[in-house]
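Entry 14. Ran structure prediction on the chain below.
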Amino acid sequence: MTKRRVEYALGAPLLDRWTRYLQDVQELTLEGSVEPRRWIGTVERLWLGVAEDSGDWVRQLDDGGVGDARARSTAQSASNVFCVEHERKSSAMIRVPLEAFDTLRADKLRLRPAPLLCCGEIVARPGRNLLIATPGEAPDRSDAIVDRNQRSKELHIFDLPQLTAGMILNGTVWAEADRGPGKTSMTNVPMPVATVIVRVG
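Output, structure tokens:
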């Protein structure tokens, strides 16, 4: 699969999801809806669909020069956490599925969280508001290594902007094969391994 086809395989469905989300928002706005449940539902549908599209994209990767990720199968875990209104911090446990190691053909994976979004706006960035660490340890990095025996990490979310009840933050944790110092390949293709949903209440 060529680079252009890989980009299209992921980009086209995401664009379609985003277009449908904007149509839903427009419809609710025209209706003058003030029901939080309906607004939250549109956001949830968008990000659950994004997670599904990301998994489909990885499954479509073949050995046509895009790296080691010949995805025979793909799996994502989901981490749903709660953030108290006005508290501005939370944390989420991330457990990487075993299938991710097989898919990426590696014994060690490097995890990198993507920014957390709320209604299409970035509210937390890796290194600034998002750090990842072994459970029980102080967070000090924006990435982390996991292996088949130690697959769990904790994503620390802090210094969030002012949040109000009903808001939903969404993000993804990506993984790529870690070949060791000096052995990282530019052809490594990352894959999503966890979806993070933070509900404010």
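The first helix runs from residue 3 to 31. Will compare against last week's run tomorrow.
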